């Protein structure tokens, strides 16, 4: 994709939440996304992975305009969403849709499937002529593997997988160019999950839609994505093609994540080199100085405390934000601090 203009570009994006002081808790600012740069090209699927609370959903919410960034830019088709006049922004927002983890919470239970889909055309008039609405609803339902008789039913009359199909149909109704999938298959059983993943791939093949696929499931990401970004405590620590990330992870955090999913672990040569991620993720209210991962990292040295590593291309060929990256398994000595990564 080098040389082509990205469809979506996050440039040093910062998104913070204000916390009011509460009982036993001081107020403050949570920098949930602390300077993230990431691109998604047309027709591409980019996976965003990381532990719970690292800021994945906040990125999703910022991209689709549910929360405002406090710094940096979201560019779509080269245009800065923060600098567009309201009318143009509204038009452009149509191109970016989101599918959430819990379709039941995101689908209005009092609306029929047909009305849930038609609502999108009410919000964006002129997209589909009113006389074609019923036919288009039928076509969309068929497109996502449902039937036209489902149009008159309500969300509670469907299974979880079917409800996710409805969410996808609703997203497709406005003919988006990018769909942000925020843990979109995480709540589904394995077999249903596979069906939805197949559907997403089919849609990409037929319609050319791009995905930013947010998930904590490295197996699903490997199955679906072309490129992968690994996030830790509000920052991206490593980005690369699927092959680069799964075969030669260079950031210790990526190595630990992969090590925790043995069936995916192509890069370790010795099973005994398992890395066990211990200790809690530090609070984003007061992240560590320097490298944010240093308090849990077996490779950490003084430099990691003093200096924040910038993403730089390493010998593996992809950008890694680490002072001491390495493709080799960690040394066999036990990590000195209990809060660090250790090996069993
Ligand atoms: N509305 C909010 N107000 C205050 N803090 C928030 C809010 N939403 C998220 N946060 C905090 O921002 C950080 C990032 O949360 P976010 O939900 O983006 O992470 P995540 O990686 O998507 O995790 P999960 O997979 O658990 O949703 C967390 O520390 C979270 O507690």
Keywords:
binds adenosine-5'-triphosphate; 344 residues; 6-stranded mixed sheet; disordered C terminus
Please provide a written account of the structure.
The chain is of the alpha/beta class. It has a domain at 249-343. It contains 11 helices and 14 strands. It has helices at residues 56-63, 86-93, 103-106, 113-123, 133-143, 160-172, 190-207, 218-224, 242-247, 252-259, 302-306, and strands spanning 8-19, 28-40, 45-49, 71-76, 79-80, 96-99, 178-182, 210-214, 227-232, 235-241, 275-276, 312-313, 319-320, 342-343. The protein has a 6-stranded mixed β-sheet, with helices on both faces. Strands 2-1-4-5 form a 4-stranded antiparallel β-sheet. Strand 1 (8-19) and strand 2 form a beta hairpin. The longest helix has 18 residues, at 190-207. It is globular and about 70 Å long. The protein binds adenosine-5'-triphosphate (ATP). Adenosine-5'-triphosphate binds next to strand 1, strand 2 and helix 1.
């Amino acid at each position: 994709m080098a040389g082509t203009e990205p469809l979506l570009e996050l440039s040093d994006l910062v998104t913070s939440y204000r916390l009011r002081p509460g009982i036993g808790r001081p107020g403050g600012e949570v920098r949930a996304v602390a300077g993230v740069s990431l691109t998604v090209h047309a027709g591409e699927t980019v996976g965003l992975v990381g532990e719970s609370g690292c800021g994945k959903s906040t990125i999703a919410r910022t991209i689709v305009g549910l929360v405002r960034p406090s710094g940096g830019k979201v560019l779509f088709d080269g245009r800065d969403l923060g600098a567009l006049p309201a009318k143009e922004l509204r038009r452009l927002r149509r191109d970016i849709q989101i599918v959430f983890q819990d379709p039941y919470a995101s689908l209005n239970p009092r609306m029929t499937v047909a009305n849930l889909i038609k609502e999108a055309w009410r919000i964006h008039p002129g997209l589909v002529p009113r006389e074609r609405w019923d036919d288009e609803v039928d076509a969309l339902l068929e497109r996502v593997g449902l039937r036209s008789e489902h149009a008159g039913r309500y969300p509670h009359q469907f299974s979880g997988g079917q409800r996710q199909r409805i969410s996808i149909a609703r997203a497709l109704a406005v003919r988006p160019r990018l769909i942000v999938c925020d843990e979109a298959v995480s709540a589904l059983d394995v077999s249903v999950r596979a069906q939805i993943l197949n559907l997403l791939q089919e849609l990409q093949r037929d319609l050319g839609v791009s995905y930013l696929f947010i998930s904590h499931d490295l197996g699903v990401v490997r199955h679906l994505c072309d490129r992968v970004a690994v996030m830790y405590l509000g920052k991206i620590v490593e980005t690369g093609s699927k092959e680069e990330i799964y075969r030669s992870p260079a950031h210790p955090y990526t190595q630990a994540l992969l090590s925790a999913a043995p069936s995916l672990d192509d890069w370790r040569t010795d099973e005994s080199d398992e890395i066990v991620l211990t200790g809690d993720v530090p609070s984003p209210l007061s992240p560590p100085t320097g490298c944010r991962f240093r308090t849990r990292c077996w490779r950490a040295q003084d430099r990691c405390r003093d200096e924040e590593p910038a993403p730089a291309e390493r010998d593996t060929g992809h950008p890694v934000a680490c002072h001491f990256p390495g493709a080799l398994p960690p040394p066999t000595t036990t990590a000195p601090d209990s809060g660090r990564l250790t090996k069993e």
